[in-house]
Amino acid sequence: MQELNEKEQLQLEVEQLIQALEDENIDTFRTLFLEIHPYERAKFYSKLSSDARMHLYRFLSPTEMAEVFENLEIEENEYEDFLSEMDPTFVADMLSQMYADDAVDVLNELNKDQVASYLTIMDDEAAGEIKQLLHYEEYTAGSIMTTEYVAIHSNQTVKSAMYILKREAPQAETIYYVYVIDEEKHLAGVISLRDLIVTDDDTMVSEIMGDRVVSVSVSEDQEEVARKMKDYNLLAVPVIDFQNHLLGIITVDDIIDVMDEEASDDYSKLAGISDVDSVDKSPISAAKKRLPWLVILLFLGMLNASLIGHFEGTLEKVAILAVFIPLIGGMSGNTGTQALAVVVRGIATGDFEDENKFLLLMREAVTGAINGLICGILVIGVVFIWKGDFFLGLLVGISIFVTLIVATLAGAFVPLIMHKLKVDPAVASGPFITTINDLISIIIYFGLASLFMSYLIH
């Protein structure tokens, strides 16, 4: 019999799990369910019907459900629906068993009354940790950190440090780094798990710890934290307050979620959509997300139309000019979007932090000039061959040359200004830049046409 591939094996397991649920065969279900990867458990759970999930809650403990919710990838509004199916005490126990930062992520999707209710019936220690994290502003290091880490003191031996590590490891989110603190809980150093394992038991922690620790402030933006962890290739980073007290750590799995969230957010803004991270099943919901930008672009488009109307006299005299309006507008929009993408990415990754912004703009202007010169020369030749009119080709070519320089500068300048004003540069979205550059291109094109009208009228 041919061996099943991974996808077929997973499908078979899903069918067996559903059958076990329907038959209410708890032993078979638990054996199959707890053998698969936690991510697959979460996927299976999220796709079940409400009736099937009610069976599942009876088959699993709060601790086992906690692992499901830690790996769950669902829409924000679905958390409330899922939790409402469970007994409140079961939910409170489940949240208590989750890592504190993951529990906070779930509670942040609920209203204040629901949060208060669950915290009230939760055990005091877990509730205290969660309350502490809930106070931090969203999208900061404090909001994504966990308080489940291992910390030791510098005046300990490696042997005693390993004892603490073994004792606290089951509750810690990661043990690859062990942080060293002083008596007042100031962050003093860090030791890797590898160093602890290979060092003699009687060696003092202070002798092997690294005292130059890369850390982040509790109020630091999560995007900055992600960038720092990427730059330093860290699996975890400690979070400190303004007095250098160790408050928690941020692990790489949380940062991957942040990077995914930030990328989706930036892509949404570049596309002119309020949220592209979810697929809307309702056309009305989808329309609400897209409509605001479309209304703004509609009015900008009307301004475009009025500009063309302003040059109605020019068009009446040389009607052939209308043929090249889409070409000029399209080229300006494309080059502006290219510059926008480069600059927004450079700002997001920090590549432009130390670079002179004037030199950056000059580089983009030269890039636009080179592209404009090549495209302009090509257009002059094509129009001359097509229409047999050298001056018309020259007008279109010069317009493209000037437009590409200006559009490239606009695509680079707008996000830099927004970043300077502490506004997310991604809101200078592709559709927005394209429409603005359409305005610029029309002014340049018809302005030059008006100046050289005598050469165009035959």
From TrEMBL:
The chain crosses the membrane at residues 291-312, 318-344, 365-386, 392-418, 439-457. Homodimer. CDD domains: CBS_pair_Mg_transporter (cd04606). This is Magnesium transporter MgtE. Acts as a magnesium transporter. One of its GO terms (cellular component) is plasma membrane. It is a multi-pass membrane protein. Belongs to the SLC41A transporter family. PANTHER family: MAGNESIUM TRANSPORTER MGTE. InterPro entries: CBS_dom, CBS_dom_sf, Mg_transptr_MgtE_intracell_dom, MgtE_N_sf, MgtE_transporter, SLC41_membr_dom, SLC41_membr_dom_sf. It is found in: Cell membrane; Membrane. Its main location: membrane. It comes from the Bacteria. One of its GO terms (molecular function) is metal ion binding. Residues 145-207, 209-267 form the CBS domain. Keywords: CBS domain, Cell membrane, Magnesium, Membrane, Metal-binding, Transmembrane, Transmembrane helix, Transport.
